[in-house]
Amino acid sequence: MAGASDKARFYLEQSIPELQEYERKHIFTKEEITAIAKMRSDFEHKVNARSSQASDYARYVEFEMNLESLRRKRVKRLGVKITGHAGKRRIFFVLDRATRKFHGDIALWMQYMEYARKEKAYKKLSQILTSVLRLHPTKPELWIYAAQYALDAQADMTEARSYMQRGLRFCKQSKGLWVEYAKLEMIYIAKIAARQRILGINEEQSETPEATAGEDPNFDVLTLPTITAEDINPSLRHDDSVDQAALRTLSSTPALMGAIPLAIFDAAIVHFPNDDALGETFFDMFTQFDHVPCLTKIMQHVLDSLLAKWPTSPSALCCFVKQPVVGIEATDVAFPSALGISLKRLKSSMQLSKPIWKLADRTIHWLLPLIMPEEQDPGVHMVLRASLGRAVTDFREDAILDINMKVIDFVRVVEMLHRAGYNGDARKLIASGIERWGSNAQLQTLQAATDEAQ
Questions:
Q1: CB of 105 within 8 A of CB of 139?
Q2: What sign results for the dihedral spanned by CA atoms 288, 294, 296, 298?
Q3: How confident is the model at residue 235 (pLDDT cuts 50, 70, 90)?
Q4: CA-to-CA dists, residue 351 to 220, 311, 402, 429, angstroms
Q5: How far apart are CA 447 and CA 454, in angstroms?
């Protein structure tokens, strides 16, 4: 078996023609080529040694990528032609060796796939995906990557669904994979809806009524009949017209009405019967697609399912509170009325939530991004600020009494308020937290930070 030095020498000899071409075409100077050869020699001896690590290959690949980037810039500036693709081929070769030796290192595989995608080597990327999914079928992030690649780069929704469904067979306990599958379907619906809007095929064509002498008494101009190509050739009337009934049927198909993401949601809730937070994750994901026509139907279905299964859950009640303002900007004229409905729901939900502090925690997280004092109506800003204050009070009063409350959750809310600039509310929580947990290091640090900000 060849030693590390023999392997290193063998691989270095293969790069000699490439370096000679660089020198002959004055892309690199002789001194630079000597430095390149020395760096490659050092890396080859490291990666071929028995004690080599995945990080050695990662640094080697980074060096080759930087070298290839510099080579391309100089070739463009000098206007010379280079035969072949030696630099790209060498990077692929190093990455292939790295993943063969450290086939369990997901970071190396991701670097390999990202480079292939960046270089638009789609055939190579398909081969890499096949290999990595065969070796690591229980890694949900790989199935998600493969599905996103199939949809984004190849526009193949059938293949993307296939990746997700195969991934769920291997990673059925991965909650993130369930959510990402539903998100993939929502992206597909959003793309179709966007194309329909651009092409105008989702809007019924209507003829603008014209005034006639019989309809308008002030109409004193003789109206001439309009002659169109259809009057001359009646066969064009049926061939060139848009079948509005067919378009309405297309838009009302179950696939475009959200049937697939809802089926994924229902299956996930059945598979995780005690996880109300997963339902909230689905709801928040769906709300990102505010331009999808079927969003209202989807949100209502999710909300009805959550409230029927967990009527006192903070996660379900938080979705119930947020629903009226979904898709409405905080500066929109429709926002105040929608906010009023949400705040009424919040008041009734606080009496149902068990425990209260969890719903208050979610309410604080929901309200903070909505408060924009410079852009909002002063009345709306005042209402939002008062609602935030009440949520902080509800959180403080219930959290201090709850024996199951953990200091890490308490500190997270304090940090959230401090980062948003609400140091007065943060100090109130810190004072109550110190009364319960004493001289906690994190609370003491936050107390000093809020005092300094004052």
A1: no
A2: negative
A3: low
A4: 69, 12, 16, 21
A5: 11
Is 318 strand, coil or helix?
Answer: helix
- Tell which residue, 189, 161, 144, 363, has the closest CA to residue 289: 189
- Are 328 and 334 in contact by the 8 Å Cβ rule? The answer is yes
Q: What does each C-alpha distance from 340 to 288, 295, 311, 314, 335 come to in angstroms?
A: 22, 21, 22, 20, 9
- Cβ contacts of 12 within 8 Å, gap of 6 or more: 37, 40, 41, 44
The per-residue pLDDT for 244 is 58
Percent of the chain with pLDDT strictly greater than 70: 88
pLDDT at position 314, please? 96
The tokens for 403 are 């024996």
Cis peptide before 355 (omega within 30 of 0): yes
Q: How far is 36 from 40, CA to CA, in rounded Å? A: 6
115 within 8 A of 65, measured Cβ to Cβ? yes
Q: Which amino acid would we find at residue 141?
A: E
Tell me how far apart the alpha carbons of residues 52 and 55 are, in angstroms, rounded to a whole number. 8
Residue identified by tokens 């080759």 is 64
**Cβ atoms 430, 414 nearer than 8 A:** yes
Output the six-digit token pair for 310: 């967990």
- Residue labelled with tokens 């199935």: 143
**Residue 272 near residue 305, CB atoms below 8 Å:** no
Amino acid found at 310: W
Rg (CA), the chain: 31
- Separation of first and last alpha carbons in the chain: 70
Q: What one-character DSSP code corresponds to residue 49?
A: S
CB 124 within 8 A of CB 96: no
Structure token digits, residue 88: 């790209």
Structure tokens at 18: 């490439």
pLDDT tens digits along 131-166: 999 999 999 999 999 999 999 988 899 999 999 999
For residue 198, with 0-12 CB atoms within 10 Å meaning exposed, 13-18 middle and 19 or more buried, which class applies?
exposed
Say if CB 381 and CB 426 are below 8 A apart.
Answer: no
